[in-house]
Design brief:
Layout (H helix, E strand, L loop, with lengths): L2 H13 L2 H8 L3 H15 L4 E4 L2 E4 L1 H29 L4 E6 L8 H11 L4 E6 L13 E6 L9 E16 L20 E4 L7 H11 L5 E5 L3 H9 L5 E4 L10 E5 L6 E9 H4 L2 H17 L2
Parallel strand pairs: 3-4, 3-5, 7-8
Antiparallel strand pairs: 1-2, 5-11, 6-9, 6-10, 6-11
Helix pairs in contact: 1-2, 1-3, 1-4, 2-3, 5-9
Amino acid sequence: MDLNRLRVFRAVVSSGSIRGAADTLDYSPASVSQQVAQLQRETGLRLIEKVGRGIEPTPAGTLLARRLDTLFAELADLDGFITGLRTGRGTTFRLSYFSSLGSAWMPRILATLTHEFPDVRVDLHVRDQYEPRARPRPDLQLIAHAGQLNAPDGYHAVPVTIDPYVVAVPAGHPLAADETPLPLGILQDEKWIDTNAGQGSCRQITIDACAAAGFRPDLHIQAQDYTTALALVAAENGISVLPAIGARQSAPGVHIRPLAEPTPRRQITALIDRDWHHHPVGRRALQLIGEASRNSTC
């Protein structure tokens, strides 16, 4: 299948018109039409249809366009890889992490890594779970999870740290008068602000700990990130139980207390590609992640 023809089709979908794609690619509209028509004949699929003065992809065309995005990303990655092999420079290191590590760990890790390896490009991706079909494939991914984590094929699993959960309460709340660990059961009658921040198993860890304490929390409000949850606590909308790393940048008006047993905890593990595990960049990245985890518990 002709790669250029696929690129033409993707440009048509992006621009929403034959003329728009022609202008983008510096082709004539007739040439673009011919390329798309030939692709439809080759695939045996109707890929676009007229809608008013423009065109839209059919369901099959939409699916093909999405698949092409993955293909073109892979090709761009391959091109960069070949350039790196030829010049000995320009290596790309893909680091994936879950969202609450973005401001907590990534700035210092990236500053040191790019300073020590100036010829290495670091691509960051936010992914809460390891996705076998995700492209580009991560060279190192940080995962938050409960229980045992089996390393996917081609990776080593390196334990990083245990992140205990804490409770955030309004500064004027009676529970804010103490610093000692708080039994989870005391929170049974509170209104909870759910921090279901797309963190995969992290929310379930809280639910399971509450079940072990003999209750199910009243999830009064759902926040999509820890920053919002903490702001809602500061405004006295309720309390929130969240990982300690997520609570490090709490809002003014919020008091943080540790939790007593049964304390919810999440494990943080680094999945590193086996080849990168022996590469200086991969080894240094693991060292920096370890340092970040130790600093986060200080």
